[in-house]
Amino acid sequence: MAAPGPPSACIGRVQRFERLKTRMARLHTLSLAALALGLVTAAALTPATAAPDQSAAVDPFIGTGGEGHTFPGAVAPFGMVQLSPDTDTTCTIRDCYGHAAGYRHDDPTIQGFSLTHFSGAGHSDLGDFLMMPASGDTVSLEPGDAKVPGSGYRSRFSHANEQAVPGYYAVTLDDAKVRAEMTAGTRVGVHRYTFRPGDAAHLVFDLRTSLYNYPGKMLWSSIRLHPDGTVTGTRETRGWAPDRKLFFAMRFSAPLKDHAFVDTEKDVTYKGFQGPGRGSDDLPERLGRALVARFDFGRLDRPLEAKVAISSVDEAGAIGNLDAEPGDFDAIRTGTTAAWARELGAVEIDAPAPMKRMLSTALYHTLIAPSVAGDADGRYRGPDNAVHKAEGFTFRSTFSLWDTFRAEQPLMTLIQPDRVNNEIVRSLVASQQVSPYGILPVWQFQGRETWTMIGYHAVPVIADAYLKGIRGFDADAALDAMVKSATYAPYGGLGEYMKRGYVPIDREPEAASKTVEYAYDDWTIARMAAAMGRKDVAAQFGKRAGNWRNSFDVKTGFLRARKADGSFRTPFDPTAINYGSDYTEGNAWQYSWFVPHDQAGLFRLMKGDKAVVAKLDQMFEYDNSKIDYSHAEDIAGLIGQYIHGNEPSHHVAYLYSYAGQPWRTQERLKQIVDSQYKATPEGLSGNDDLGQMSAWLVFTGLGFYPVAPGSLEYVIGRPFVNRAVLNLPNGRRFTIVTDGLSDANPYIGGVTLNGKPLDRGYLRHQEIVAGGELRFRMQATPNRNWATARSARPFSTSTARKGG
Fold first, then answer.
1. What residue numbers bound the domain in which 457 lies?
2. How many CB atoms lie within 10 A of CB 213?
3. N or C: which end of the chain has fewer CB within 10 A?
């Protein structure tokens, strides 16, 4: 929803009518090619109910180019199904990085539409159960070569005939001569294909394809046609997550005329092309490692719909999920459109048009994961690969915790607190309780652990929620799970860390990063334990929270890796980035600032505020012209040695405020926003990482950011909105108003909270959830007096205010 307009009801009606005309005109334009091909009827072009303004401002194509790794397809808020086009699933291990979400905006062909995708991950997997329409008398069961039109079932397309809005995606397939539409519910995806009049309609259903394909990934698959026309099956893969099982159930809106289930690994007569009536191929069931199906429907007088549900439990679970969401394409789309309107309405945004588009899309991207991973009956598959049942909550997975603990999950505590306690935290604890190792998820999807990235960052997610007053989960069980994760010696050098107070680089890779990330996680355990009255745990982990000092080299002023004998590893180059070495996806420049819970303590080791500001400036202004980072996939969005395209840098611009110069934070934030975000497909400088890049922009756009989740504070930066409203779940509204917002006024002149001057550089969580108004006055020159006093600076452990 947009900010309220003029009070005149007449003016409001005119504005709504103009917006509806705009939407109808766009739908008409996108469908011209389809009409020219005779693919749709006039009735089929009737628009769905106009989405609210906030939904209309979302552009799912942002991030689909460059290295954003987002997908444009249909998904419900936090939905299990992400039904989206795949432009290439034939990539090798070396070149799959750019296709991590299945779709790249600069690819010329679509291979098909599959049911599962990550939004902005730095690793690829999923792309399950790919479907593609085909027409005519001969149907290819191979995707073919993108450079050779007609060599397979893939098809060329044009962005001019492509549309994406929350919960809906459509494109005209030029070679197949079919208009393809997608929508999704919570656990179902619905395809709708409009064929040309007179063309025979077919669907290719490929169980072989997968994102990040490599030899041996496909372990087993099956497909079965039931007497009532329902099709079910499964596939088991060995990819990013080992031994992952996924099941499907599918029904069509038209009766089957014929079908073929082909095992391309064993069928000696298989030549890659299959026509209707292949006799021995129309078996009711096939099992194998390389299955592809063809479904024939003859000539149709209306669009063909295929409704598919998935389950990680079994085929019965997939059928149950299919039955749990009744209705055809339009019914599912209407429900999902309403769901997006409701969820996006949590933040009303009024900003200059490109910024509103970027912020609205960023909010949309934050609401895709953690995704539902449990069935409608409550069953789910856990990290032990066994089936369990959730009681009183919906099991969720897709936890990219190294990324999302920073801003994505703190944003959820403001706008989705019920999901945080009843689903996210309970899912994390439920996973720990059945984990073969007894620890919380690290990077989990569909209930399966990948062991990707470092730290035990489910810990700050739980602690931040508890400290913010979010309940509904067993706090004692949660704290026990946190402690078990932080004391599991075999994981990531934790045994050495507990013994020495740091992770030694000659015993464990990425040791410098692990030391400081463990120390922060330990601090959040101590905070939660203290709030619960668990003094023993609070004391133990409060001491461990200071371990970051053990890897900081005062002589060089950088965080460095130490060896088991206590010496720092040499040679030392603070700009060096090598995977598996001292740092995780970064170098000393980024990681030397990672002490979110005690920046004041760090600054003292760096010789004080003046030296800190000089070092921050040196970081942002570093000359990289002689440095080659081409070997490092996740190093993108460089501003000197600040790397916005990856998470370790995300809090750094806010650190000027800790050094008493908040106007420098304001300068850097404008520099970052202007250079790292755009309202285009290439609009994200790095992987969105399941919403973290987007959550950074949402918070920064509102004017504040959670530098240290668990501190109950947000550091004030500067706003990028004219007005925004947080419609809080408790019924209150927190309004941000910016007077004088423009490129000519990049600095804060003054701030008021509920009409009273605010002279400190932070907000408290309770001040936001209580509702009220935060008002910024912007000006052309820095205000060097606002929020500079030591008492006005954000939280640090070593300078904590009483009760802080």
1. 382-471
2. 20
3. C
